[in-house]
Specification:
Blueprint lengths: L2 E7 L13 H13 L10 H9 L2 E4 L3 H10 L6 E2 L20 H17 L7 H21 L2 E5 L1 H13 L3 E6 L7 E6 L2
Parallel strand pairs: 1-4, 2-3, 2-4
Antiparallel strand pairs: 1-6, 5-6
Length: about 190
């Protein structure tokens, strides 16, 4: 039997920010972003609603925007809510008093990631890597019993959990939308 796991990035957050911020401002922005739900204009693509309707199990991160995304995908069903698939903790580089727009902070994180890659430093703290392995095992067991599984998670965590999934025999079968909101990555195992 072929098992299927679909990891969907949540819809757009209700928390928006314009302008520049220093590292402390970024931390405040992140806290507000994590606490916010979905944008009132958020609407999932119909194909994702079809996926959620045929799922044997639904799982969502415990972030408000993920829970609300799942409610839009499958309003008549009750998902498993798990902090295992929440977004990664972020550790912004200390740039002193430099004030950047959000896109600038995104570039700073990419630079930080690239530096870690070329210096062979861990790309994520061990606690996050362990959580990714635990999440992969949890999702794999759920899929073994109730495939297909549809999970609403986050862009950073989805990228991190991919390696432990692949180590457990999953292969990425489709990537729809790369990293944008409502993007879906489909993994298959077996068969």
């Amino acid at each position: 039997m072929v098992e299927e796991l679909v990891l969907i990035r949540h819809g757009p957050s209700a928390h928006v920010h314009s302008g520049r911020m220093d590292v402390e401002g970024f931390r405040r922005w992140r806290a507000a972003y994590e606490a916010a739900g979905l944008s009132v204009s958020a609407s999932p693509p119909p194909r994702l609603k079809v996926l959620a309707a045929r799922a044997g199990a639904l799982v969502t991160s415990n972030a408000p925007r993920a829970i609300e995304s799942m409610q839009l995908l499958a309003p008549e069903r009750t998902p498993i809510v798990s902090p295992l698939i929440r977004e990664l903790e972020v550790y912004p580089p200390n740039l002193g008093g430099v004030r950047l727009p959000l896109a600038g902070w995104a570039l700073a994180f990419v630079g930080q990631w690239f530096y870690r890659k070329v210096t062979f430093a861990p790309r994520a703290p061990e606690a996050e890597l362990a959580r990714a392995r635990e999440a992969a095992a949890f999702l794999g067991e759920l899929a073994r019993a109730q495939s297909p599984v549809v999970a609403v998670t986050h862009v950073g965590f989805r990228a991190l959990v991919m390696k432990p999934l692949e180590a457990d025999g999953w292969r990425r079968a489709a990537t729809d939308g790369r990293t944008r909101h409502w993007s879906a990555w489909t993994f298959l195992r077996g068969g």
